[in-house]
Amino acid sequence: MTENIPTTFVSSSFATRTGNSSAVVYVSNKEQVVNIGGTPSNKNTNSGYSHIFLITDGGIFPEDTVFSLDEYASPIKSGYTFDGWEEIDILYNPINKSDNTGHTYQAKWVEKADSKISFKDDLNLNKLYDGIAVSLSENDYIVTEGAGNVAFAYQAKGGNDWNDITSAPINAGTYQVKAIVAENDTYKSAETDWKEFTISKAMPTYEVPTNLTATVGQTLADVILPEGFAWQDAQTTSVGSVGTRTFKATYTPKDTMNYNIVTDIEVTLTVNPKMEELNSVPTIKAEDKTLFIGDKFDPLKDVTASDKEDGDITKKVEVLSNDVDTSRAGTYTVTYKVTDSKGASSTKMITVTVREKDTQKPTTDDNEKPSATDIDKKPTSTDKQITADTPKTGDRTNMTTWAILMFVSLGLLAGVFIVRKSRKNI
């Protein structure tokens, strides 16, 4: 709508002229008529007196108004209804007054009735964020019957200021709203006071992390949580000893404008023992032994030990038990043990057999050695037998006994032979 009426004819976009006809000039008030038409002292010479003036008296014209000489335009005015044009007398009588010249008209206005609108006392717009815009209906206000359409205006609070927003709010924040009833042909426009309300942040939904594990010696910072979760005091909190532990975590949603950050969420953590580096068991190399009575026995002789990590650890071999007695024939055991640098140990037992010594051949005195001639002679079969039956060194007494027994046996055989022969001859 056009809000201002020009004050002079020459600049007035509301002045119209057709051919030689007088101009029609729209003005806001009577003073403008004087300014354009002149004063009484020069009314006989000023052509302005032949114009037709229309005083809107505060009225304005819509932007699409069409002005013509044939029909005067109709202005509008807030709170009033236009009731036509009425001619009035100004401070002096214009010259050349006729049907189409020298007239002044003023708009007639009829005041509209007041309308009223107010929110109901029990209206409560506070709510938790739910992603849905605030909505008001005809059930939320009271308005004068027959009044115009109702619309709503919203403002959002920013610090200490209120800022206009173009639509009903959705996000969490502090807002205010007012209802405005539009002017119609009968009633004036009216509006309510501002009503403040709050859309509060909602609690986010989340799943508490499960199946979390840690190792003795770690802190919570070493335990990775799902997206959005964080340990409280992670850098300084130890996971503690082996077992099930409960610690507090914080959940931060992606949309912090509309959802709260949740703290003190109890999360269960399983703490496992620290995994030690695998250590190979050392090995002992020792073999079973056979000794003879009277032999010396060193249990550590020929015994070695080795370890995958430490290498040769023979010097660490120790004898746990040893019951070997070389003065008596028998079977004995020796048990060894070795321990590596990390505490791993192994044992091994061997068997030691002690036997009686084998009987040695008799030694020959130098005086009884055969001569070279005797050595060169080949022995007869009788010699071989004798040699084969010759007792071993150390059994001379036995040899004499065997000789006596042999002669006795021969004597007995001879006696038996003689007796059999005598019986045969009888």
UniProtKB/TrEMBL annotation:
<dbReference type="InterPro" id="IPR035986">
    <property type="entry name" value="PKD_dom_sf"/>
</dbReference>
<dbReference type="InterPro" id="IPR013783">
    <property type="entry name" value="Ig-like_fold"/>
</dbReference>
<keyword id="KW-0472">Membrane</keyword>
<keyword id="KW-0812">Transmembrane</keyword>
<feature type="compositionally biased region" description="Polar residues">
    <location>
        <begin position="382"/>
        <end position="394"/>
    </location>
</feature>
<keyword id="KW-1133">Transmembrane helix</keyword>
<dbReference type="InterPro" id="IPR032179">
    <property type="entry name" value="Cry22Aa_Ig-like"/>
</dbReference>
<protein>
    <submittedName>
        <fullName>DUF5011 domain-containing protein</fullName>
    </submittedName>
</protein>
<feature type="domain" description="Pesticidal crystal protein Cry22Aa Ig-like">
    <location>
        <begin position="287"/>
        <end position="354"/>
    </location>
</feature>
<feature type="transmembrane region" description="Helical">
    <location>
        <begin position="399"/>
        <end position="419"/>
    </location>
</feature>
<feature type="compositionally biased region" description="Basic and acidic residues">
    <location>
        <begin position="354"/>
        <end position="381"/>
    </location>
</feature>
<dbReference type="Pfam" id="PF16403">
    <property type="entry name" value="Bact_surface_Ig-like"/>
</dbReference>
<feature type="region of interest" description="Disordered">
    <location>
        <begin position="353"/>
        <end position="394"/>
    </location>
</feature>
